[in-house]
Amino acid sequence: MPDAFADLAPRMDFRLPLLLAMLLLVAYPAYTDYHARGKTSEVLAALMPARAALVRQIGSLPVDADLRTLALPAPDSPWLVTARPLVLTQPTTSRVRLAARLSGIHPALEQRFLAWEGELDSGRHSIRWQCVTDADSTAWRHLPEICRHAAGT
Description:
Blueprint: H1 9-46, H2 48-58, E1 86-89, E2 95-101, E3 113-120, E4 127-133
Antiparallel strand pairs: 1-2, 2-3, 3-4
Protein backbone atom coordinates (compact mmCIF):
# COMPACT_ATOMS: atom_id res chain seq x y z
CA MET A 1 0.00 0.00 0.00
CA PRO A 2 1.57 3.29 -1.10
CA ASP A 3 1.95 6.20 1.37
CA ALA A 4 -0.52 8.91 0.35
CA PHE A 5 1.52 11.68 2.00
CA ALA A 6 4.92 10.71 0.60
CA ASP A 7 4.57 13.17 -2.31
CA LEU A 8 3.62 16.05 0.01
CA ALA A 9 6.59 15.78 2.37
CA PRO A 10 9.07 17.85 0.27
CA ARG A 11 6.49 20.63 -0.23
CA MET A 12 5.49 20.71 3.45
CA ASP A 13 9.11 21.32 4.46
CA PHE A 14 9.04 24.53 2.43
CA ARG A 15 5.51 25.71 3.22
CA LEU A 16 5.63 25.50 6.98
CA PRO A 17 8.60 27.89 7.47
CA LEU A 18 7.11 30.22 4.88
CA LEU A 19 3.77 30.23 6.68
CA LEU A 20 5.45 30.87 10.02
CA ALA A 21 7.52 33.72 8.57
CA MET A 22 4.44 35.40 7.10
CA LEU A 23 2.60 35.02 10.39
CA LEU A 24 5.54 36.54 12.25
CA LEU A 25 5.71 39.49 9.84
CA VAL A 26 2.09 40.33 10.60
CA ALA A 27 1.88 39.42 14.27
CA TYR A 28 5.09 40.93 15.66
CA PRO A 29 4.40 44.58 14.73
CA ALA A 30 0.86 44.27 16.04
CA TYR A 31 2.18 42.80 19.29
CA THR A 32 4.76 45.58 19.78
CA ASP A 33 2.07 48.23 19.20
CA TYR A 34 -0.21 46.48 21.68
CA HIS A 35 2.59 46.21 24.23
CA ALA A 36 3.51 49.92 23.87
CA ARG A 37 -0.15 50.93 24.31
CA GLY A 38 -0.26 48.91 27.50
CA LYS A 39 2.84 50.62 28.87
CA THR A 40 1.61 54.13 28.01
CA SER A 41 -1.73 53.31 29.63
CA GLU A 42 0.23 52.33 32.72
CA VAL A 43 1.96 55.72 32.69
CA LEU A 44 -1.38 57.53 32.51
CA ALA A 45 -2.66 55.42 35.39
CA ALA A 46 0.51 56.19 37.40
CA LEU A 47 -0.27 59.91 37.04
CA MET A 48 -3.78 59.47 38.44
CA PRO A 49 -2.83 59.87 42.14
CA ALA A 50 -1.12 63.18 41.31
CA ARG A 51 -4.16 64.23 39.30
CA ALA A 52 -6.48 63.39 42.22
CA ALA A 53 -4.25 65.27 44.69
CA LEU A 54 -4.25 68.31 42.42
CA VAL A 55 -8.04 68.26 42.23
CA ARG A 56 -8.29 68.01 46.03
CA GLN A 57 -5.86 70.88 46.63
CA ILE A 58 -6.84 73.29 43.89
CA GLY A 59 -10.18 74.31 45.39
CA SER A 60 -8.53 75.64 48.56
CA LEU A 61 -5.85 77.66 46.78
CA PRO A 62 -6.09 81.31 45.80
CA VAL A 63 -6.77 81.94 42.13
CA ASP A 64 -3.27 83.35 41.56
CA ALA A 65 -1.45 80.48 43.37
CA ASP A 66 1.51 78.89 41.63
CA LEU A 67 0.45 75.29 41.02
CA ARG A 68 4.01 74.21 40.28
CA THR A 69 4.83 74.32 44.01
CA LEU A 70 2.21 71.77 45.04
CA ALA A 71 3.40 68.59 46.73
CA LEU A 72 2.05 65.80 44.53
CA PRO A 73 2.66 62.05 44.87
CA ALA A 74 5.32 60.60 42.62
CA PRO A 75 4.07 58.29 39.87
CA ASP A 76 5.08 54.67 40.27
CA SER A 77 6.00 53.40 36.81
CA PRO A 78 9.24 51.96 35.40
CA TRP A 79 8.57 53.70 32.08
CA LEU A 80 9.16 57.23 33.33
CA VAL A 81 12.29 59.35 33.27
CA THR A 82 10.97 61.87 35.78
CA ALA A 83 10.78 60.99 39.48
CA ARG A 84 7.77 63.23 40.06
CA PRO A 85 5.12 64.62 37.73
CA LEU A 86 5.92 67.94 36.16
CA VAL A 87 3.24 70.50 36.83
CA LEU A 88 3.25 72.94 33.96
CA THR A 89 1.06 76.01 33.98
CA GLN A 90 0.91 79.41 32.39
CA PRO A 91 -0.23 82.14 34.76
CA THR A 92 -2.50 83.79 32.19
CA THR A 93 -4.35 80.63 31.22
CA SER A 94 -6.71 78.32 33.03
CA ARG A 95 -4.82 75.17 32.05
CA VAL A 96 -2.67 72.85 34.11
CA ARG A 97 -0.61 69.94 32.82
CA LEU A 98 0.69 66.91 34.72
CA ALA A 99 3.45 65.61 32.46
CA ALA A 100 5.97 62.80 32.56
CA ARG A 101 8.83 61.89 30.21
CA LEU A 102 8.68 58.40 28.72
CA SER A 103 11.57 55.97 28.47
CA GLY A 104 11.94 52.34 27.39
CA ILE A 105 8.49 51.92 25.86
CA HIS A 106 9.16 52.23 22.12
CA PRO A 107 11.79 54.12 20.08
CA ALA A 108 9.08 56.39 18.62
CA LEU A 109 8.12 57.50 22.16
CA GLU A 110 11.61 57.80 23.67
CA GLN A 111 12.00 61.03 25.70
CA ARG A 112 8.54 62.21 24.66
CA PHE A 113 6.09 63.43 27.24
CA LEU A 114 2.67 62.07 28.03
CA ALA A 115 0.41 64.20 30.17
CA TRP A 116 -2.98 64.89 31.60
CA GLU A 117 -3.96 68.45 30.71
CA GLY A 118 -6.76 70.03 32.64
CA GLU A 119 -8.82 73.10 31.95
CA LEU A 120 -9.96 74.84 35.12
CA ASP A 121 -13.36 76.46 35.35
CA SER A 122 -13.51 80.15 36.33
CA GLY A 123 -13.88 79.47 40.05
CA ARG A 124 -11.34 76.60 40.12
CA HIS A 125 -14.00 74.20 41.34
CA SER A 126 -13.62 71.59 38.61
CA ILE A 127 -11.13 70.50 35.99
CA ARG A 128 -11.88 68.96 32.59
CA TRP A 129 -9.04 66.56 31.74
CA GLN A 130 -7.66 65.27 28.45
CA CYS A 131 -4.55 63.35 27.43
CA VAL A 132 -1.85 65.28 25.56
CA THR A 133 1.55 64.31 24.16
CA ASP A 134 4.39 65.75 22.12
CA ALA A 135 4.76 62.51 20.12
CA ASP A 136 4.39 63.02 16.39
CA SER A 137 1.64 61.49 14.30
CA THR A 138 3.82 58.51 13.32
CA ALA A 139 3.67 57.30 16.94
CA TRP A 140 -0.13 57.41 17.27
CA ARG A 141 -0.49 53.64 17.12
CA HIS A 142 1.66 53.27 20.26
CA LEU A 143 -0.67 55.47 22.33
CA PRO A 144 -3.89 54.53 24.11
CA GLU A 145 -7.10 55.46 22.34
CA ILE A 146 -7.70 58.39 24.70
CA CYS A 147 -4.41 60.02 23.59
CA ARG A 148 -4.49 59.41 19.85
CA HIS A 149 -6.24 62.69 19.08
CA ALA A 150 -3.27 64.50 20.65
CA ALA A 151 -0.51 62.89 18.56
CA GLY A 152 1.01 65.37 16.19
CA THR A 153 -0.48 68.44 17.88
